[in-house]
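=== RUN LOG ===
request id: a7f3
mode: sequence -> structure
chains: 1
length: 184
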Amino acid sequence: YFWLIPLTLLPQWFMGEGEIYFGPDTSTGILPQPHVLVYYGLFFAFGALYFEADDINFQVGRRWWLLLPLALLIAFPVWVVTIGNHSVGAVIQALYVWIMSFGMMGLFRTVLKRESPSIRYLSDASYWFYLAHLPLVMAMQAVVRPWQIGAIPKFLLINLVVTAVLLVSYQLLVRHTFVGVLLN
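=== RESULT ===
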């Protein structure tokens, strides 16, 4: 799977140039920026191919106990130390995202060994959450901004309200419709 790193590095190279950044750019327009589309397309393609591969032997992420510390205790700190060096930052981020992804896949395959209806439901709803969350979060931020409470209660309240609205909208408007079939 090492071939994924140079493929990811190509679009990663065009992200956040001239800024201190970590993670992929976000396209906020109707049409995504080409490098962002390619970047997310790589992950989508990998997911589709991996799903079709039916990894019953649990090859990807099987050493999650090594991958997660490698990502969190080595790759991320190396990025922090080299902030401002775009070349190193792009390479480290391409490494980090795959190491962390495989580590998390392994962790969850180990922890969640059997089917769970509630986890399945959240998994089915997750793409709807991804697509619909941004305007709701922005609206909630505008609502709570003038409130005289701390940032942490605001953060928790926004997460709670947006999650509740998205769960209800998923159940009532998406899950048993053509859109739900399309998303899953």
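=== NOTES ===
The chain has a mean pLDDT of 91.
The CA atoms of residues 37 and 50 lie 20 Å apart.
=== END ===
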